[in-house]
Specification:
Length: 206
Amino acid sequence: MVGSLELIERLSRAVTSVRRHLGLLSPIGKDGMSQNALLRSVKGLGVPSTARKEDRKTKLKVAASAAAESRQEFSSKDHFAIRHGVRCAGVHLIVDLHGAKRLNDIDHIEATLRRCVEAARATLLHIHLHHFQPSGVSGVAVLAESHISIHTWPQAGYAALDIFMCGSAEPDNCIPVLREAFEAKRVDVNEILRGQEASKETSQEA
């Protein structure tokens, strides 16, 4: 663009010089003004649109504002759970699987944890599993609603799981998934309603 402007200016000066020499152009006149206007318009092509810049800034501000409002709305919720009419910080299920299979299959265990999260309508953040030698798997699925942890003893056909969820997640939906996935002969479930006193304090403050 800079080269084009220099060329136009040189041509304009050459034409002006010839026409002045022939007496066809005065230093200040209509043609001179037209050429100056032409140069200004050509130079203007290299200047980005201020209106477009401002419009883009406005859109970015609106998007950032909407994201901030969404984060504020999420953080304003206490995510306490209601269980059998009792308000609590979360529902904690202590699960024991007996006579279970595929407890040394780390890929199967990960897939099962993912199915549990989906069934419970929870939000998965990440999964970390460790495979012991010669056997056994320990790990956790970290959720926005808390976690699902597992520890297995394949040689004994036994697995211990903790399923702790707050908010509107449905931890009970994990039980049939676990029973089917590991073909457990017996499934024992104990329930603890965590943080009942904390939920009362929060409710009174609100």
